[in-house]
Amino acid sequence: MNCIFCNIVSKKVPAKLVYEDSKILAFHDVNPVVSVHILIIPKKHIESAMHLKKEDEQLIGYIFLKIKDIAKNFGCDNGYRIVNNCGKDGGQTVNHLHFHLLGGNSLSWPPG
């Protein structure tokens, strides 16, 4: 498997880490779109949210609780956005489940 995020998990590819434990990894996006742009990934390879299984239920809840902590550590006290792109038509460019934590700025909707 030639997955860039799996290679980051295995330390074959460097990343600017902000959090790591036995289940997840969080690191700065190499092409940030706002002042706080962090990717949060499970260490387990899951292609996308469309590929989640019942066994992944606790992992997804765990990820969202950790995102809250990471956002707080980066001063996103007034709010932030969590983005997950699913599949090619959803804009997913890396086929490993990941969440974008966006904050540090006042974000508008729709994005643009």
Number of helices: 2
Q: Going across the biggest sheet, name each strand in turn.
A: 1-2-3-5-4
- Main sheet summary: 5 strands, antiparallel
Shape: globular
Describe the structure.
This protein has a single domain (4-103), classed as HIT family, subunit A (2-Layer Sandwich), CATH 3.30.428.10. It has a 5-stranded antiparallel beta sheet, covered by helices on one side. The termini are far apart. It is an alpha+beta fold and 112 residues long. It is built from 2 helices and 5 strands; from the N terminus they run αβββαββ.
List keywords for this structure.
112 residues, alpha+beta, five-stranded antiparallel beta sheet
Briefly, what is this?
The chain is of the alpha+beta class.
Layout of strands and helices, then pairs:
Blueprint: H1 4-9, E1 17-20, E2 24-28, E3 36-42, H2 57-73, E4 80-83, E5 99-103
